[in-house]
Write a structure and sequence with these properties.
8 strands, 26% strand, Bacteriocin transport accessory protein, signal
């Protein structure tokens, strides 16, 4: 009887891992930036999670990613480091930030319109974040990832940034790291 139960549990484990492995293998089932961030955040265990908020000033979300209003270019730049002129190229955006200190962890996901180059947006986003005047200390690291018509930036403490990067890549096989650099 123990062998049958063990075998049944092993089969269930293999099937559940196969199902997780096939889920979100690309960007085909992600229709917006918020879904992208929610997918990644859902892979964090309770021990890995840290105090976060999402959204923007007018539409904050506690303990989860939130949609970011792209109509306010100044907020996009101030809160996420997204360059103001590029806001016109967005379909939608979402954010996930450390609740106590944005320099510890700030992540923005950006859904680009079809006629925009993700590589060009990633480059201007990287330059805008790297050229910021930081207050209250520097973040350790910046990572910028492209996935089809999505660009994701994350900066902050190296361990938190690396964990997010790895989880995003595990969720989406099309995720390509285009920048992974220390912030100096």
């Amino acid at each position: 009887m123990k062998k049958i139960v063990s075998l049944a549990l092993a089969v269930l484990l293999v099937l559940s891992l196969a199902a997780c492995g096939s889920k979100n293998s690309g960007t085909g089932d992600v229709s917006d930036a918020l879904t992208l961030l929610n997918t990644v955040w859902a892979t964090y265990s309770e021990e890995e999670k840290f105090p976060v908020s999402g959204g923007d000033y007018d539409h904050p979300v506690d303990d989860a990613p939130g949609a970011f209003d792209i109509s306010n270019a100044d907020n996009m730049d101030y809160m996420l480091g997204f360059p103001g002129p590029s806001v016109a190229n967005l379909v939608d955006a979402a954010s996930l930030m450390h609740m106590m200190n944005a320099n510890t962890f700030t992540c923005g996901a950006y859904h680009l319109s079809d006629d925009v180059s993700a590589a060009d947006v990633a480059s201007s986003l990287r330059d805008n974040i790297m050229n910021r005047q930081w207050m209250c200390g520097f973040p350790d690291k910046l990572v910028v990832i492209t996935m089809g018509q999505f660009v994701v930036s994350v900066y902050g403490a190296e361990d938190l940034v690396d964990t997010f990067r790895d989880k995003l890549q595990n969720c989406f096989s099309s995720a390509a790291v285009v920048y992974d650099e220390p912030i100096a």
